[in-house]
Specification:
heterodimer, A: about 130 residues, mainly beta, Folate-binding fold, two-stranded antiparallel sheet, about 5% helix, B: about 425 residues, alpha/beta, FAD/NAD(P)-binding domain, 8-stranded mixed beta sheet, binds flavin-adenine dinucleotide, binds zinc ion, SoxD (chain A)
Amino acid sequence: MLLIHCPYCDEERPELEFRNAGEAHIARSNNIAAESDEDFEKFFFIRSNPKGVIFERWRHIHGCARFFNAARDTITDRFLLTYKAGEPKPDLTKLAADAGPAAWANRPPDQLNEKPKAKRPTKGEA
Amino acid sequence: MRKYSVFAIAREAMRGHKGWEEQWSSPEPKSEYDVIIVGAGGHGLATAYYLAKEHGITNVAVLEKGWLGGGNTGRNTTIIRSNYLYDESAGIYDHALKLWDGLSQDLNYNVMYSARGVMMLAHNVHDVQVLKRHVHANRLNGIDNEWLTPEQAREFCPPLNISASARYPVVGASLQRRGGTARHDAVAWGYARGASDRGVHIIQNCEVTGVRRTPDGRVSGVETSKGFIGAKKVGVVAAGHTSVIMNMAGVRMPLESYPLQALVSEPVKPVFPCVVMSNTVHAYISQSDKGELVIGAGTDQYISYSQTGGLHIINHTLDAICEMFPMFTRMKMLRSWGGIVDVTPDRSPILAKTPVPGLYVNCGWGTGGFKATPGSGNVFAHTIARDEPHPINAPFTIERFRTGRLIDEAAAAAVAH
Ligand SMILES: Cc1cc2nc3c(=O)[nH]c(=O)nc-3n(C[C@H](O)[C@H](O)[C@H](O)COP(=O)(O)OP(=O)(O)OC[C@H]3O[C@@H](n4cnc5c(N)ncnc54)[C@H](O)[C@@H]3O)c2cc1C
Ligand SMILES: [Zn+2]
């Protein structure tokens, strides 16, 4: 079970509240009928399926119900970052290794009993 | 290779079992082979075996990054059946089923294929319609599949709860009597032994890290953790890692890799005579010859190479198992694990030539390829040896995702294995 930070609710919530919605940043053509078979195949069927960092869409279906994007490592299942839909694809080289622990399961052993530090100020502060 | 037989057992018993040979040899890689197979799962090893046995191509290496049979082959719940909906699927899965019958003799290795029957449960009107459609379509293809009433289902599988007040009432079932199970490890070991005996090199702990191509685009070999190994033909049979390896050759695939979990209970005396699957509640169960209940769960919802999966996934499956078989509610589960399965958009495999000359791919078996192991290896060997597909795997191209000629078992069943 993953722990996922919804960028709209600004809270980490259990995976059960979310639906994965596939690879992110795949642009749908404005004129889909005019797409060549090759381009339609790329858009619809071909997936990068990386072993490493993936950009993917999630939907907080049992929360705010909104779609957002995430960068996650598919080897450790650890989230590097979640960000709002429409925001540009983040530059991975700029993501610090410790960009907000989101998956309890993959926390280093010495931090296992530690609560994740809030990345952003929580409500009331700021 | 010394044949296994009752005489061999007697002879070895007389001399203190000192004469048993290693089942396969573990040579150092040569610099060049006629064919390299990437991945020593059941499908890769079967491919090498049939290349040698049926096509006389013995200068073959099977490269495996871990140990042979340690991927999905050694992690699956071993359900074997061929009652898929579409003609193309019926063709390839039943080709495999025919080979299962007789495989132990062919390999001189007991793969423990047991045609104990696979029963699929219907819990609602929609299930009834779908399963009956399968029964009819299968019969038209000459594949056995029959419809059972709830009472007949319980007669075939006494532990089944068919009470009308059950949370998932059983309103009928389909039964393929030729379906069943086999011993997964023995399948890998038997093919490895048969291939090695015919001269195939099985090289374990040898990870493929690159695919080398000539200036005109042809395959010329692979980079590995043991150095470069040349070959004009390379067959990729790497299940969950197919996208990774095909990327090394510049080919992007219509695949996504997901964790799929299974678990086994403590061993008990024989209580469960057959295989039962329920697509709707997503549970499948059988009892191994060791006595463990073997239970398969669903995939996680996200792409992962972690070979684990979420606890809530197996929990959900156990909820369903306990509802359908109340006698199992107090069983203890001993072990659970995950494998990484490569899923295509239409849930049918790809066994084909690729846009890169000399590069072949056998993948996309997803949650249900163990049953196809002999048939898949058999026609994939043909595809590599002749550089053209066998009629049975000809429909399973990569191009179908461009042309639209999908083999849409996803729509037909929408479920695993
Ligand atoms: C939990 C679970 C339950 C299942 N239940 C069933 C079932 O009941 N019935 C059924 O029919 N199917 C089932 N399946 C599916 C079935 O296990 C697979 O479809 C089948 O075993 C695939 O066989 P394979 O030989 O293609 O892959 P694998 O056995 O996974 O072999 C691929 C091999 O490639 C190797 N490899 C990967 N990358 C590299 C590299 N770079 N270099 C070298 N080697 C590499 C891997 O280490 C691996 O050994 C199940 C799968 C799982 C995970
Ligand atoms: Zn939210």
